[in-house]
């Protein structure tokens, strides 16, 4: 709408004369901000919480960590309490048992029907039902569902939610004790990896030139050696404790981080703000730690988060090969390894650790994906 | 030439409802666009209306964040995902472009309306030969044969001033200099044989000597093909070189519209004054009239005239009430209360230094004169 | 020695960058045999198009790069030699730099106070309240307010960031500032703010400024003398008005003819001059060198070109 100045509509005519006073303001300063300051991490947090998947993954990780902390001390069984009578007990869980699953029963195949009434072999109440009766060579044989708890003579109020292993150890306690150890191994190995990787990559990337050449070649040589062989040699040399597993995972684990950091340093060291700091006479150390490194934090955190499930998996893998943590300590890998040897007879021993490690890895991966997006500086301020 | 332009437009309402017999090729009506962002809605375009006439160059001037790029992105149908067209229409060829679906937009974008970006490197596919990139557009449209397309592409490359076209045809973008890349982008934009060419700061990334050549080229092509051009820039020198008409934008609104002469020699809006006097030319010796402060945060656009908080010449009413567009001539209008009849008492005039500079500009032929 | 007319003298400065090795070795002569001097409290403008070596010249002087060869003296002291602790100290306390990109030149993870106060910290100032006081004072000087000190760079507009960059450069009271395209990335409406600010600071602090830009109008307005660079060479040095009225080197003429002026009348009649080195110079028989054609007006030319230029000057 364009108004003719000689033919103005009513509402624009005869405005108060004072309105047309010229203010002639001389000293116009920059205004204060109307918005609240939003720091880098706050902005990232805002975007992270917008992603439902990340939140769910985060909650799952949180629950598992809490369980790993809480379950072993609260459990009535110690992770290494052996009970030779209560070995190979199937899972039995209050309330759920009424649904017909995890009720502590097991099917024994091809038993003599006649023996079912022998209280020596089948204590009272231990036989629930029998079926598939066939006669083989004049013997009546059947499959029988038994209450393994009663059969083992375990008191009625004793529950092993995830069952017991070949030494009668409570698998629930062992699983979460194992989770705790696996997480600790993963956490510490990632921490050492990140530490070594950052220092190595920073030096390599910041100084460049000959130093960079030597350092990168060394890392390449190390990376070229077969990982498993190196690790096995390492474990043979230092034995299998938590520390040595962490170290074994570190031998080549830091190389990825150092490459990332080196690339980031190459990217940032030519930035004008780094040059500006150099013209001010800022020392190399300050440049590395105050100016460049904080800008690599996003990718670094993301990488570390992605590395955790990787480390858990590597640890399980080593355990599976029999290079795991020293018994009787469990880890998820040790449990899986033990479970798979009796997989066909007692599948529950493998199922629970397998589910846990899968959930844990998926959750960590999804969460780190969300984290990567949230920390991506190009997406700042977006909804 | 300026005279004929002026007389042509004397009859046309500068931005009012376009009469059908006038050759308005594109018409933007009360366009409002916002962006969702953390902290609220960014009101990028707040009621923009303008017409583009056939065969003219319309320059849209404004600083970053003034909404000039957003407006033309809306015309091209390439707004970001978090953009909301709140109201308004873009009339072209009997259609409202704000309502055209993405699937149908391909018919218009690149074919009827061509676009030249600011950064030629990001507009080109780095791993595809230059010739292929041009012929691709040609073949997409008409289903012409490969040989015909190549012939046409070579011709287009000659038109935009690329030497040794036969040899250049099989080269990749990285083998071209910045200026040459921009010529390729222009050739691609022309390949669809558009009638409207939108140039979004096409020379900002280029050196002055290259810029001058590219601008000459665009002017020549425009003349030869009778194109209508929308030219987005913040460089007033470029505007003076290219534009028949100028829209000055600030904070999502057009604050002044007029012919090139009117904007440069009879500016009416304090923001236009400020723009004209804030940059030194080769004769400037005095202190520059800097515009104080910073552009407003468009999540919270200021009350009244958006420029008032930075305007040394603001009236009281500017801080309270938004000024409407006042007509100055048939082609010239500005949104400032200074044009209201009652403002005569306030005796606010354009700064003396600007007045002197305009006088000097009118007299001198400049360096080349 | 400190009372010499010139505060900065650059003699035959070369900065070559090499990449690759062996057969694939490639040498780029970013700065090739550049000689000029800057007077005390003067603004010396360096113009040229991208890739002409003007930025490299500035960065080499402040020793972001180690020069390939040539001499640079500041206040009579050699600053092109081997980097020592003392030289670093001398350099950083005397010369500061303002950068081009208002987004890139401020560390996104640091607050404004940390950014501006860094120079003080480097100089051993550890009293936080004193740093704060000086930072706020400096922010006020560049038109910002105390509240801004705790903010992060991304919250500021381009013009504000550039002013923060200026505050960072001058908080340590340098004698000379190298301003590398300080306004070219800014919106037109805020360029003037920054130019005026630099002008004020120059007056107030008696700063010597090496002003690097590609916009000749801005350089002309801001500088006392101007050097024009083309592909690593300094081709012409003159006072602003002389350069504008009597451009001698064909590249200077081409550059001047290409600047768009905000004036539709002159723009419509613009005649652009092309610069084609192979056509405009014949250096097959004579070697060009930097010659003073008239007082304070140097051109890179061969003896026969010099004749021609002298004629032009006389007729002007």
Describe the protein.
The complex is a heterotrimer of chains A (383), B (369) and C (316). Chain A is mainly α. Chain A folds into two domains: 92-152, no CATH class; 171-379, MetI-like fold, CATH 1.10.3720.10. Chain A has helices at 40-50, 52-74, 148-152, 171-207, 209-224, 227-238, 242-268, 272-279, 284-292, 297-320, 332-341, 348-375; strands spanning 2-3, 105-112, 127-136, 139-147. Chain A is elongated, with a radius of gyration of 33 Å. Chain B is an alpha/beta fold and 369 residues long. Chain B folds into two domains: 2-250, P-loop containing nucleotide triphosphate hydrolases (Rossmann fold); 253-363, no CATH class. Helix content of chain B is 34%, strand content 21%. Chain B has 13 helices and twelve strands. In chain B, the strands form two sheets. An eight-stranded mixed sheet of chain B has the order 6-7-8-3-9-10-12-11, sandwiched between helices. Mean pLDDT of chain B is 85; it is low at 1-21. Chain C is globular and about 65 Å long. The two termini of chain C are 38 Å apart. Chain C is of the alpha/beta class. Chain C has a single domain (6-315), classed as P-loop containing nucleotide triphosphate hydrolases (Rossmann fold), CATH 3.40.50. Chain C has helices at residues 54-61, 85-94, 112-122, 128-141, 158-170, 188-205, 216-222, 240-245, 250-258, 264-268, 277-280, 303-315; strands at residues 6-19, 26-39, 43-47, 69-74, 77-78, 95-98, 176-180, 208-213, 225-230, 233-239, 289-294, 297-301. In chain C, the strands form two sheets. Chain C has an eight-stranded mixed sheet, with helices on both faces. A four-stranded antiparallel sheet of chain C has the order 2-1-4-5. Chains in contact: A-B, A-C, B-C. At the B-C interface, helix 9, helix 10, helix 11 and helix 12 of B face helix 5, helix 6, helix 7, helix 9 and helix 10 of C. Strand 1 of chain A pairs parallel with strand 11 (325-327) of chain B, so a sheet runs across the interface.
Mean pLDDT across all residues of chain C, rounded? 89
Helix content class of chain B: 25-40%
- The helix/strand series of chain B, from N terminus to C terminus, equals HEEEHEEHEHHHHHEHEHEEHHEEH
Largest interface: B-C, 52 and 47 residues
CATH architecture of chain C: 3-Layer(aba) Sandwich
CATH topology of the largest domain in chain B: Rossmann fold
* Order of secondary-structure elements of chain C: EEEHEEHEHHHEHEHEEHHHHEEH
Question: End-to-end distance of chain B, in Å?
Answer: 18 Å
Q: Can you tell me the number of structural domains of chain C? A: 1
CATH class descriptor name of the largest domain in chain B: Alpha Beta
What's the name of the CATH homologous superfamily of chain C? P-loop containing nucleotide triphosphate hydrolases
Number of domains of chain B: 2
What is the SS-derived class of chain B?
alpha/beta
Helical run tally of chain C: 12
Largest sheet of chain B: 8 strands, mixed
**Which stretches of chain C are low in confidence, meaning pLDDT under 50 for 5 or more residues running?**
none
So what's the oligomer here? heterotrimer
Strand proportion of chain C, as a percent range, falls in 25-35%
